[in-house]
From TrEMBL, chains A, B:
UniProt feature coiled coil, ranges: none
UniProt cross-references to InterPro entries, sorted A to Z: Aminotransferase_I/II_large, HTH_trans_reg/aminotransferase, PyrdxlP-dep_Trfase, PyrdxlP-dep_Trfase_major, Tscrpt_reg_HTH_GntR, WH-like_DNA-bd_sf, WH_DNA-bd_sf
Lineage: Bacteria, Pseudomonadati, Pseudomonadota, Alphaproteobacteria, Hyphomicrobiales
Domain HTH gntR-type: 17-85
Keyword Transcription (UniProt): yes
Name of the molecule in the record: GntR family transcriptional regulator
Family named by the database record: In the C-terminal section; belongs to the class-I pyridoxal-phosphate-dependent aminotransferase family.
Alphabetized UniProt keyword annotations: DNA-binding, Pyridoxal phosphate, Transcription, Transcription regulation
Pfam families reported for this sequence: Aminotran_1_2, GntR
Highest rank taxon of the organism: Bacteria
Species, as recorded: Rhizobium wuzhouense
């Protein structure tokens, strides 16, 4: 018998319906994580009622609804059993039970599905008119004139060599030394991290993340059934005492972090923190995934863990979805040669080859001198937008955690007593997608924080709606 | 203690070096599959020697080499232990130990990495000049004129609606009824199957495949640590007695198969087989993945399992990599609405969004009337190439398993006494990539079979090299 009661339901939920829902959710979670396997017997009504501290009728109701959903099965005279066909992996059932409004998928789905006229200060990317559209049109026309092979054939397993060569030169600018054969092209930065997780993680392995961190790290790690431990994040990087303690206590397999501009805080790793962090990782034989997708927002390169480490235990990951195009994506992994070899087999197994045409397009834009000019103009425009956004937020009593050196994001605390999830829910009704703090927090300790994307805050209605939501929340 | 001896080494290997290699391989496999976890103690030298039926000195040698490779660690006075940092997932270490030349990755890597001048009758796709190059050029130019959003923004979670609508109309032509909200766009057919495996499989779950089957199914399922069981394949589909028995014995979670032209045999599922197969699947609550990537090669549609089943337990998967472009790929999954919902969350977690621009390109080609004309011309050209290839193979004494109604592939037996792996190895030295039978066979029962791609057999040197290899093998 493996059904342990979960935390007591919140007071607001402690109605009959709330109690039933709570029991159902707890049992579904046990089945999703396979702590209750296919065919497992569930506790009797009486025993279940004791365990969950509910009445027998609540327990009956919960079992009946689970049976109606074909999750469990009643065998007359014998009891209740998990249906033999195992439940699919439902990500929303893994991890802590959250209000759907602070589920890591909430911001993503709202942002991706929002109608064109919505305002999206909570989303993680720039509006189309901030992107190098003309460079892309030029790249498409140029590709339309090239040889048939690059239009129709699979690429090589590692991916387009001239792009890998270009990437090694870019990485060298931040001190990362890699040969082109140490670079594997994949479909996106997310796919890069996913491939690394497949390569290194077993279900149940512990992974450290920053708290707060990019919310999709949490979704991805839950999909790998990792045990996620958050490390409090400071303006100069992770809190190293907490990091060292977590390493000693949990013996994690991986630490996943952002270099350059940390998402969501916008903070930059200091040289001293980077050095001490690497010493702890080396002593504990810990592997680190350094996700560097914001590097093109940087004016001055911050320290890179991969540079300190020489790609021994650090796996460096990047993409161009934020500054070039999110429609034709390329991700890359730079790592030890033997790991690249294993990752390449996994890439073949899970996506066969590619993305060949996207690689040609991205290379064509990167080689074009106008991309560097685009980046310079974008950084100036973003710095101005950041200042303006900060001023407008200040008028509403919303204060940033730090003043980032650049990048897209302002991580802010709402005025005393406001819950960011409530504010986000109210703003959504007015067509504004916000990013409440707890979607970024594994410990759920950021209820009054919110991430703002300065490039998406140009429209003054963002602040009108926000002000109204603050008044009502 | 979990180290079980594996099958006795083949006679040719029963040298000292062979015995040591055998012990090392067996231990590595146990570590790769985590039946020996990090930190696990290995058997003592004496006990290991008994278990593997080797001399203690062979055992010492094996342990020393594993320790030198940092796989295990000697703790003086205590014994040998699996190193605490777990080994990454090395696909080549999973499944049976094979000659690298019949590894599922062999054909893929050789085909993808072969220099442009190589001949590739063993590869699974068409040469560039068989692909609709002009349609693609037109689509690229047209895309260069469209709005910025489709060039730079992430797509919606399900993917481009007009393409999903187009796909539902295409599927309706083979009797598959699906609404656009039951269709999820992904990066490729392989990624589609991978996502389904993530959704439905746990490590250790049993999956049925055809024997022979597309070799990358084996690689992909090994990456999911599935237990793979092969079902002998007949000219009208899987052997149903063997299928029913495997379902009863192994209680598989999934059956993965090709409809339309089966890879590698080129066979077509008969209506009677499809019907009986679905009855067995229904009775056992078995889920089926129907991979339909060869549908555009069909003149007359064969029965589709998804059509019989109404997308209840069949998940239908397709792509355009074989007939439109392998450089800008799109895969799709059609399934039950609640499964599409779970698959979409998994897609967001593992690749975030997309592929938006590839979807625009593929839709642009599909809508263009010239794509249908391209398909008609391609099928005629392929039928002629198939006839010519069959005649040339017959002159070398190579006989097809069946005469396929169409498609790319001829699955053939070599003349008596020839080993396809030896022939493939010799031909590779002459710049010809072949596909030896055992890469397709989970039971390794196709040592004298070989798959030929008729579209890649136009050059007469293919047959000169093949003849020479047959003489020498």
């Amino acid at each position: 018998m493996n059904v342990l009661p979960v935390e007591a339901p919140a007071a607001a939920e402690a109605t009959n319906a709330g109690r039933t829902a709570h029991v159902i959710a707890a049992i579904r979670a046990r089945i999703a994580t396979r702590s209750l396997g296919p065919g497992a017997k569930l506790p009797s009504i009486r025993k279940g009622a004791d365990l969950f501290d509910v009445s027998p009728s609540t327990m009956v109701e919960a079992y009946e609804r689970l049976a109606a959903d074909c999750v469990i099965q009643a065998r007359p005279g014998s009891g209740f059993y998990v249906l033999s066909s195992p439940a699919p992996l439902v990500l929303a059932d893994l991890g802590p039970r959250l209000d759907r409004a602070v589920d890591p998928f909430w911001v993503t789905r709202q942002s991706l599905e929002a109608p064109a006229e919505s305002l999206k200060p909570g989303c993680g990317w720039m509006p189309p008119d901030w992107m190098p559209e003309q460079d892309l049109r030029r790249a498409l026309r140029s590709l339309a004139r090239t040889g048939a092979t690059s239009l129709t054939d699979y690429g090589t397993p590692l991916g387009l060599l001239p792009l890998r060569q270009h990437l090694t030169r870019r990485m060298a600018e931040t001190g990362i030394e890699a040969s082109p054969s140490q670079v594997l092209l994949v479909e996106s930065g997310t796919q890069a991290i996913d491939l690394v997780c497949r390569f290194l993680l077993e279900p149940g392995d512990c992974v450290l993340v920053d708290d707060p961190c990019y919310f999709n790290f949490l979704a991805l790690l839950r999909a790998h059934r990792a045990k996620i431990v958050g490390i409090p994040f400071t303006p100069s990087g992770p809190d190293l005492d907490a990091f060292a303690e977590a390493v000693a206590t949990h013996r994690p397999r991986l630490y996943v972090t952002n270099s350059a501009f940390h998402n969501p805080t916008g903070a930059t790793l200091s040289a001293a923190t980077a050095h001490r962090l690497m010493k702890i990782a080396e002593a504990a034989d810990l592997t680190i995934v350094e996700d560097d997708i914001f590097c093109d927002f940087e004016q001055q390169p911050a320290p890179r863990l991969a540079a300190l480490d020489g790609l021994q235990r650090v796996i460096h990951v990047g993409s161009f979805s934020k500054t070039l195009s999110a429609a034709t994506r390329i991700g890359y992994i730079a790592a030890r040669p033997d790991w690249i070899d294993g990752l390449t087999d996994l890439k073949i197994a899970s996506s066969f080859a590619g993305p060949a045409l996207a690689a040609e397009l991205v290379l064509s834009v990167l080689k074009d001198g106008s991309y560097r000019r685009h980046l310079q103009a974008m950084r100036s425009r973003l710095a101005a937008a950041m200042g303006e956004t900060r001023r407008r937020l200040a008028r509403l009593g919303i204060a940033p955690f730090i003043e980032p050196r650049g990048g897209l994001f302002l991580w802010c605390s709402l005025p005393e007593g406001h819950d960011a999830t409530d504010v986000a829910r109210l703003a959504l009704a007015d067509g504004v997608v916000l990013a409440p703090g707890n979607v970024f927090s594994v410990s759920q300790n950021a209820p009054s924080m919110m991430r703002f994307n300065a490039a998406q805050c140009a429209d003054p209605r963002v602040f009108t709606v926000l002000e109204r939501a603050l008044c009502r929340a």
